[in-house]
C-alpha cells in the first residue's frame, strides 16, 4: 500500500508543482487527502483479517498516512533543487511564444517590456510556490514578500523609503513558516532571482535587437527633415516638370523599369544578408535580369501582331 500510494502521488504532485499557481498547494493537499484516505481504507480492510490489536493497527495506519506526506515532501524538495532550471524554462516559454504557443516573431509592434514583466512574474510565482511546503492550511506571506522585494523594489517610480531601506529577503527564514517546512530561504530566493535575471537578460537583449533590425529593414523612407529639405530644395525642379509633361512620361517609364528591376533582383531581401554579399550577388544577376526584362517587353510587343497577321492570311 505504500508503493501504491507513492505511485498515486509522485507524478501528479510533480505536475502540480510545475504549474505553480495560487491553487497548487490546495490541490496537492486535496490530492494527498484523497489518495491517503483510499490507501488507509484499503489497508484497514486488508489487515482486519489478521486480528491485530488496536495499537498495532493504528500504528500501521499512521505509518501509511505519514508515508503519503513524506512522498509529497520528498518530491517538493526534488523540485526545489532544480528551481532555477524550471524558472528559466517558464520564462523562455512565455517570452518566446505567443498566446497560441507559436514562436514569437519580433516585428516591432510587440511590447517587450510588458512581455518580459509577465514572464518574470510567472517565474517569480514558481519560486514562491517552491519556497516552502504547505501541507497544512497555515497562511504565509511568501508571495507578498517576494513581490515586494523583487518586483516593486525594482520599479524606478518607487518612493517608499521603507521599501528601499529594509530588505525583506535579508533573512534565513520565512515569517510564520517553520524551518522544517522551508525549502528555499529568503536569502537563497534573492540569490536565485539575481542569477535568473542575469541568465535571461541575453534573451531580452536579443529580442530588442531583432525588433530594432526589423524596424530598420521595413523603414525605407528618409527622416521627416530630409523630406522637408527635398520639398524646399526641389521646388524649381518640380515646376520644371509641370511645364514639361514629357519629363513626367520619361520619369514614369524609368519608374516602371526600376520597379521591375527591384522586384526581379529582390534587392530588399539581398541586403538583409549584408552590404558586401548583396553587392556581389546583385552584380552577377543585374545583366541577366535586364536582358530578361527586355525580352519580355519584346515578346509582349510581338504578341498582338500574331492574330492580325493570321487574319490577313485568311
TrEMBL record:
The chain crosses the membrane at residues 246-263. InterPro entries: RHD3/Sey1, Sey1/RHD3-like_3HB. GO terms for molecular function: GTPase activity. Residues 1-300 form the Sey1/RHD3-like three-helix bundle domain. One of its GO terms (cellular component) is endoplasmic reticulum. Keywords: Membrane, Transmembrane, Transmembrane helix. It holds the Pfam family Sey1_3HB. GO terms for biological process: endoplasmic reticulum membrane fusion. The keyword tRNA processing does not apply. This is Sey1/RHD3-like three-helix bundle domain-containing protein. It comes from Psathyrostachys juncea (Russian wildrye).
Amino acid at each position: 500500500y505504500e508503493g501504491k500510494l507513492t505511485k498515486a502521488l509522485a507524478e501528479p504532485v510533480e505536475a502540480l508543482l510545475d504549474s505553480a499557481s495560487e491553487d497548487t498547494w490546495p490541490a496537492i493537499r486535496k490530492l494527498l487527502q484523497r489518495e491517503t484516505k483510499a490507501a488507509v481504507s484499503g489497508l484497514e480492510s486488508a489487515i482486519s483479517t489478521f486480528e491485530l490489536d488496536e495499537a498495532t493497527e493504528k500504528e500501521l495506519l499512521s505509518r501509511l498516512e505519514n508515508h503519503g506526506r513524506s512522498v509529497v515532501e520528498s518530491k517538493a524538495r526534488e523540485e526545489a533543487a532544480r528551481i532555477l532550471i524550471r524558472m528559466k524554462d517558464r520564462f523562455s516559454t512565455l517570452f518566446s511564444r505567443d498566446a497560441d504557443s507559436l514562436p514569437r516573431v519580433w516585428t516591432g509592434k510587440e511590447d517587450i517590456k510588458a512581455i518580459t514583466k509577465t514572464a518574470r512574474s510567472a517565474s517569480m510565482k514558481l519560486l514562491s510556490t517552491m519556497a516552502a511546503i504547505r501541507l497544512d492550511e497555515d497562511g504565509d506571506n511568501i508571495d507578498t514578500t517576494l513581490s515586494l522585494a523583487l518586483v516593486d523594489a525594482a520599479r524606478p517610480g518607487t518612493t517608499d523609503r521603507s521599501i528601499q531601506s529594509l530588505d525583506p529577503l535579508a533573512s534565513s527564514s520565512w515569517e510564520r513558516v517553520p524551518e522544517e517546512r522551508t525549502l528555499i530561504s529568503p536569502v537563497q530566493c534573492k540569490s536565485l532571482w539575481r542569477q535568473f535575471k542575469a541568465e535571461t537578460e541575453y534573451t531580452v537583449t536579443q529580442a530588442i535587437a531583432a525588433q530594432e533590425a526589423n524596424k530598420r529593414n521595413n523603414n525605407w523612407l528618409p527622416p521627416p527633415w530630409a523630406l522637408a529639405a527635398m520639398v524646399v530644395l526641389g521646388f524649381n525642379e518640380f515646376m520644371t516638370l509641370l511645364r514639361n509633361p514629357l519629363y513626367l512620361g520619361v520619369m514614369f517609364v524609368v519608374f516602371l523599369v526600376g520597379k521591375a528591376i527591384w522586384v526581379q533582383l529582390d534587392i530588399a531581401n539581398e541586403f538583409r544578408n549584408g552590404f558586401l554579399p548583396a553587392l556581389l550577388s546583385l552584380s552577377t544577376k543585374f545583366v541577366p535580369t535586364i536582358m530578361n526584362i527586355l525580352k519580355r517587353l519584346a515578346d509582349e510587343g510581338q504578341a498582338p501582331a500574331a492574330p492580325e497577321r493570321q487574319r490577313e492570311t485568311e
